[in-house]
């Protein structure tokens, strides 16, 4: 997380558009940034209008954000200004100095509301706590357990946003209209491969060994069509709506143009058959498992585990601080069908993490209410 702060009390920051080149140079200077806050991500989300904004302390660029603009139906001059997992500013101190000029700039340029997702966590729970919670019939959610670690920065950011009139958008299950509030992450800093294997549960270690014994081969490739065919198969089996092949082609072309190490496709094959495929995105020290697919046949050769282990090892070799397995629901109820997701990810060791979540600031309340009603009617 970027943590630069205004150097003195009462510092006045200004917000203005910056070029994609300026934005990318700023991102490259940070230890860790969400790939959703890279300038090229706007090209991937082509259905939104995008722009890069910078925060200036005098003439010095001290913060940056990718803003995705969504117009209001029949009122195209107004937009929802969305900063997913951003912006990249100093969240550890007085955030009004950063967000007030953002609100003023966006309102002046036609935004009816701002939605942002501070990259700041509030709580973490260990894999052992997750396991114990699932086994306890009296525990239904992660938040029923005391967190292993509570981040005072996250609590302060949430409090300041609420006091300033921002509205929380994260639903009870952690998945809303944007990006999940609860994630599963494996800390990598200071670890070795042996450390990471020891942190996994017995089933995960067994599956990794099983894949190797069965001769599963994981390669980094470019066959997006093969990935997409398997992804569509996975979507049909698991009952979700797949993205079109063109989306992934655009994603790879855009992110690879920004940085040749930004995105990778991992393909696991067994005797020539594609049994699993995954996509890894890395910005600085933050590696993200973005997409995955697996075949229904040959599940016993454990291609998905082999892909995950290959991505974890490569992230470790790249000196990443964290391997991000992305969203989970906070349920620990053994009768909830979603509990399998957190069980699978907790098997890697690591920790469940709650972030501050996404928040809205209405800038034009009447338009915001109309937009909210429209989104509720169409199921968002």
From TrEMBL:
Superkingdom field: Bacteria
GO molecular function, one term: aminoacyltransferase activity
Keywords: Acyltransferase, Cell shape, Cell wall biogenesis/degradation, Peptidoglycan synthesis, Transferase
Keyword Lyase: no
Pfam families in the record: FemAB (PF02388)
GO biological process: cell wall organization; peptidoglycan biosynthetic process; regulation of cell shape
InterPro entries: Acyl_CoA_acyltransferase, FEMABX, PG_Glycine_Bridge_Synth
Record PANTHER family: LIPID II:GLYCINE GLYCYLTRANSFERASE (PTHR36174:SF1)
Similarity comment text for this entry: Belongs to the FemABX family.
Official protein name in the record: Peptidoglycan bridge formation protein FemAB
Native source species: Wenjunlia vitaminophila (Streptomyces vitaminophilus)
């Amino acid at each position: 997380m970027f943590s630069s702060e205004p150097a003195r009390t009462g510092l006045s920051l200004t917000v203005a558009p910056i070029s994609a080149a300026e934005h990318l140079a700023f991102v490259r200077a940070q230890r860790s940034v969400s790939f959703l806050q890279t300038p090229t991500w706007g090209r991937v989300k082509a259905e939104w209008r995008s722009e890069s904004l910078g925060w200036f302390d005098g003439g010095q660029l001290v913060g940056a954000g990718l803003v995705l603009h969504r117009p209001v139906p029949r009122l195209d001059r107004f937009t929802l200004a969305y900063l997913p997992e951003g912006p990249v500013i100093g969240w550890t101190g007085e955030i009004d100095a950063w967000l007030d000029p953002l609100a003023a700039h966006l309102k002046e340029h036609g935004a009816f509301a701002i939605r942002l997702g501070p990259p700041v966590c509030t709580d973490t729970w260990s894999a052992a706590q997750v396991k114990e919670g699932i086994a306890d019939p009296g525990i239904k959610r992660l938040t029923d357990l005391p967190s292993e670690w509570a981040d005072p920065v996250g609590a302060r950011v949430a409090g300041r946003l609420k006091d300033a009139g921002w509205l929380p958008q994260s639903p009870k299950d952690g998945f809303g209209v944007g990006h999940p509030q609860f994630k599963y992450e494996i800390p990598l800093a200071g670890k070795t491969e042996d450390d990471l294997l020891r942190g996994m549960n017995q089933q995960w270690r067994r599956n990794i060994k099983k894949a190797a014994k069965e001769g599963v081969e994981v390669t980094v490739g470019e066959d997006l069509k093969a990935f997409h065919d398997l992804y569509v198969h996975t979507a049909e089996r698991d009952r979700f709506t797949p993205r079109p092949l063109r989306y992934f082609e655009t994603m790879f072309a855009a992110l690879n143009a920004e940085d040749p190490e930004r995105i990778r496709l991992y393909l696991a094959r067994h005797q020539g058959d594609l049994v699993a495929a995954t996509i890894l995105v890395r910005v600085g020290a933050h590696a993200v498992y973005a997409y995955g697919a697996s075949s229904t046949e040959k599940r016993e050769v454990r291609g998905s585990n082999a892909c995950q282990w290959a991505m974890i090892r490569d992230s470790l070799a790249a000196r990443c601080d964290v391997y991000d397995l992305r969203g989970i629901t906070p349920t620990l109820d053994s009768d909830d069908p979603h509990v399998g997701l957190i069980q699978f990810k907790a098997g890697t060791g690591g920790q469940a993490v709650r972030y501050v979540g996404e928040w809205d600031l209405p800038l034009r309340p009447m338009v915001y209410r109309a937009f909210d009603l429209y989104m509720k009617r169409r199921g968002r």
